[in-house]
Design brief:
Blueprint lengths: L1 H15 L6 H27 L4 H33 L14 H28 L6 H21 L5 H6 L1 H25 L3 H7 L6 H12 L1 H25 L4 H7 L9 H8 L4 H23 L2
Keywords: Membrane, Transmembrane, Transmembrane helix
Protein name: Lysine exporter LysO
Organism: Vibrio stylophorae
Length: 303
């Protein structure tokens, strides 16, 4: 257990203390991170193609994805709507509609990477007849580099401990999403007859589809990794589409449902639809959830 956690947290810890003072290096790390995420998700697609009884496993991926998405979403939305009623959040009135299509395209491009890897894997397996046993080792190496870069980004995000501790709304949203996601994960595990700790691990992605798909796939195999990726990707797509529609009436729900994405992909829409006062809440909530994903997911996976 501790060896596996050390393997993950060492590059995160080291990366956190590497300063990126010049903007060009920050852009370089961001671009490299995006490329490695695309590459490792393509390798997940290759891993899916390498499975035996492929059609049966694809059906299992769909069943896992749908069950976890609906179970977790049910608990998330009920609790977030209660937060909106109990702790209303002021938003700025905005003019016009927000176009979420560019952000949705960015998410869909990662799904395309998985599909492309799947096609390449099928071609390699059935047409070229080459072995695919190298994929797991390649995933591990790229994951270590990716976590180092993620640690660098977190360390240079500019969010200090004081800012986190002072923003109660952001902490509240993060806590609500964590607890209700776990409830949904337990329900999904019960429905699917899975071990409870696997249900909690699958529910601990909080919208970070790239990292959750990688970590789950590395420990539970490509079927669960693919399901975790799709589950969290669906969360982001629903958030991107719904934020412009519900921000004025249900701002906590609009910010909170996106989970970890509220500090990156969904943040621009949150700012434009809810105003600048919503930004600290979104950043703090997303930051806490992003920081929680590797710790909580790996903890449950190692049980």
């Amino acid at each position: 257990m501790f060896q596996g956690m050390l393997l993950i947290f060492t590059p995160l810890f080291v990366g956190y203390f590497i300063p990126l003072r010049q903007e060009k290096w920050q852009r370089f790390v961001s671009n490299l991170t995006n490329r490695l995420i695309t590459l490792i998700l393509a390798l997940i697609g290759v891993s899916l193609a390498a499975l035996d009884n492929l059609l049966t496993n694809l059906g299992q991926v769909g069943l896992l994805t749908l069950t976890f998405f609906l179970s977790i979403g049910l608990f998330n939305l009920m609790a977030l709507l209660w937060v909106d009623w109990r702790y209303p959040l002021a938003v700025k009135e905005q003019q016009g509609d927000e176009n979420s299509l560019p952000h949705a395209k960015e998410s869909l491009s990662l799904l395309v990477a998985v599909l492309a890897g799947f096609v390449v894997g099928l071609a390699t397996k059935y047409w070229i007849a080459l072995p695919l046993d190298w994929v797991d080792q390649a995933n591990t190496v790229i994951l270590m580099v990716l976590l180092l870069l993620i640690g660098m980004q977190l360390g240079n995000s500019g969010i200090g401990l004081k800012q986190i501790l002072l923003n109660r709304a952001g902490i509240r949203l993060a806590a609500v999403l964590i607890m209700t996601s776990w409830l949904g994960g337990l329900l999904a595990a019960l429905i699917l007859s899975l071990p409870w700790h696997q249900g909690l691990a699958m529910a601990s992605g909080f919208g970070w589809y790239s990292l959750s798909g990688i970590l789950i796939g590395d420990h539970l195999g490509p079927v669960y990794g693919g399901a975790s990726f799709l589950n969290e990707l669906l969360r982001e797509l629903v958030a991107l589409i719904s934020i412009p529609l519900i921000m004025r009436r249900f701002p906590n729900t609009a910010i909170g449902y996106g989970g970890a994405t509220s500090m990156d992909f969904t943040l621009p829409i949150i700012q434009r639809c809810g105003g600048i006062h919503c930004v600290p809440t979104a950043i703090v909530s997303g930051f806490i959830l992003s920081l929680s994903v590797p710790f909580m997911m790996l903890f449950f996976l190692q049980l």
